[in-house]
Amino acid sequence: MAVAKFLYSSAALVLVITALAAQTMTVRAQAPAQDCPTQLTGLNSCAPFVVPGSPDTAPNAACCSALTTIDHGCLCNTLRVASRMPAACNLPALTCG
């Protein structure tokens, strides 16, 4: 039961980040060629690696390529927003280990 809950939570986090990519506009320090949501959408290729229980033990070339195109501030701001979502929804804070 705990493993299934963890898998669903992790999959939900991937979906949340993808949703944030589609809806969030962030201020960028150095005006990259693409806007933040477009950059984050490219991370869909990383989904097989980040979902717990996946047989993929390393990101594929498409994931690594997408990661190199993301502005540091864009990724950090998205993770900050995602980490605040449980509290905003009156849920317990995430404890990742």
From TrEMBL:
Please provide the record's keywords in A-Z order.
Answer: Secreted, Signal
Task: Tell me the superkingdom of the source.
Answer: Eukaryota
In what residue span(s) does the Bifunctional inhibitor/plant lipid transfer protein/seed storage helical domain sit?
36-96
Signal: present as a keyword of the record?
Answer: yes
Has UniProt tagged this entry with the keyword Secreted? yes
| SUPFAM superfamilies linked | Bifunctional inhibitor/lipid-transfer protein/seed storage 2S albumin
Please state where this protein is localized. Answer: Secreted
Show the Gene3D superfamilies listed in the entry.
Plant lipid-transfer and hydrophobic proteins
State the signal peptide span. 1-29
- A cellular component term, taken from the record's GO annotations: extracellular region
| Transmembrane regions | none
The family line of this record is: Belongs to the A9/FIL1 family.
Q: What is this protein called?
A: Bifunctional inhibitor/plant lipid transfer protein/seed storage helical domain-containing protein
In its UniProt entry, the species of origin is given as Coptis chinensis
